[in-house]
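Support case: user asked for a sample of complex input and structure output to validate their parser. Sending the pair below.
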Amino acid sequence: MSAGPALVSILRQGDTLVASIHTALDDSEMIRFQNDLVHQIGEHRARGVIIDVAALDVLDSFGSRTLRTIAEMARLRGATTVIVGIQPDVAYAMVQLGMGRMGAHTALDLEEGLAYLSSMRNRRRRAAP
Amino acid sequence: MGTRSAARRRDSRNLSWRRAVHFGAGRHVCRRPAPSSRATTGCSFGGPGRPAARMVTAVTSGAAAEKSSEPGGPDEDVAALIPMLRRIVGARVGQHPAAEDLVQETLARVLAAKDRIEPGMIEPYAITTVRNLVATMWRSDDREQRNRHRLHDPNEPHDIEDSVVATEEQSAITEALGRLTEREREVLLAHEVSGRDTRSLADEAGSTAGAVAAQLKRTRARLRVEYLLALEKVEPPTDRCRPVLLALSSADRRRQRELDAPRHLLECDLCARLSAPLLGRGPTREDEVHVPITSDPDIVAARQAARELAVRAGFSGTDLTLLATAVSEVARNIVKFATSGDVTIELLTQPQPGIRVVARDTGPGIPDVDRALEDGFSTAEGLGLGLPGARRLMDEFSIVSERGRGTTVSMTKWFDKKG
Ligand SMILES: [Zn+2]
């Protein structure tokens, strides 16, 4: 078996999934990533999802839309999605494309993303009866 | 075509299909093999090739499709794909010896993936798969490499199979030589075979060495075209074919532009096929990249090629990302709305440094270009054309679209405009 570098990885930490995209994905790979991630959100009853896209040099309309879909599906399954690591150039291009609204919270990096999720968890706990 | 080349091509395709997908508790890693074999390695494709292929052969040759008493049985709908797949393959590779292999491989993959595909999605899945397979086959330019070598040195068979191939190629060369004019043949053979230099040939003809050299160059270009046609045993289907092939063979860019050669290559399967060995001959241009677009991975390849070309030319910063994103959008349009196309990326120096991207396809055409450029057009199902976005990312943008013939999107990014 030839084994190139991993395209994506999905790691579980408690009730949080950390998905990292390691390299440019084509559309089929992106869809596959979406399916796997959504599947794992259900399987592990995840409450938080972090998608790290720092390695992506382009988030075109398809990529942006797929991330938006993931966030939406995660929300329907009761999980909060944070997208971290969008490069400044990439963000600028996304806005020009008209894909600026992600439908998910965004954070600078993984640490900030985790901090956001834990603040959400605390808020939910406080809100609970 | 020699059996060997077909066998070798199959080997290389098998290699390129290998990939590993590991599922584990809480961890998923999807891997991709070497970049050169990306075309069929999208994570969602695959499945073991050979054993399943035999199974499909049994389905097709055993007339299971006609006689099965269970309409809609498990493999029935797969077998029903065969005529369509043969049509698709035929349109792309003609009578190529690998044609039936491609059909069978596609069926094998569809069967292997069947459990994972929604019933209604089998046909689109099969179409995508067969397109990927054909593209991969052309991309493994094994045959072109061999042809290129053979044209110079047809006489050294390395083994028995090679000698069969060499004989075919030898007779193709003989036939190609026969299609030159007597004068062309004389000068070429005097120079190439008898080793006479251009000056002595020029003296004899009352010409100059430079003119003889130019004539020799044209003759060689013509010989390459005629050789490939003789090898394929075909006559070009249109009047335009020979001029286009000649312009490619002689690397005459002005002539290529006059003839709109890139579009002809999109519309003419024969010339598209022959262009690979012809284009491979010329000096590779530093300032232009040509990316054929047939499937998903080509979108990534196109935008990476654009970025690399721009970086090589010394550009940097946000412009690179904007350019790559715009290329991604127009390349995706080709994959989504047309059967095939290509993206050409060209460095410009006049009137200022920049990059021009031309995306051509042979799709149905855009009925209303103005509307297609409006934001939100056809985005209801998330199927945006991506054109308004691409236009905003670039500095210049134009579309020419003809119904039933295809669309050409040209866009330019100037690099030193900003202060
Ligand atoms: Zn032609």
